[in-house]
Amino acid sequence: MAKCSICDKGAHFGIAVSHSHRRSNKMWKSNVKSVKVNVNGTARKLYVCTSCLRSGKVERA
Description:
By secondary structure, the protein is mainly β. The chain contains 1 helix and 4 strands, in the order E-E-E-E-H. The protein has one helix at residues 50-55, and strands at residues 12-17, 23-28, 32-39, 42-49. The strands form 2 sheets. It has a two-stranded antiparallel ribbon with strand order 1-2. The longest helix has 6 residues, at 50-55.
């Protein structure tokens, strides 16, 4: 679910390093919202990241 329908931005994976340098796996989720969007003149509900919403890549319904 945490994937943008427009730019395919999804979760990022890496290693979190603590102050004592102990390492653990970490996942960063993208900021994805459920939004009503105009697609070919019809309103559809899509998952869109906030950077696509702010840049104007989608037109809200």
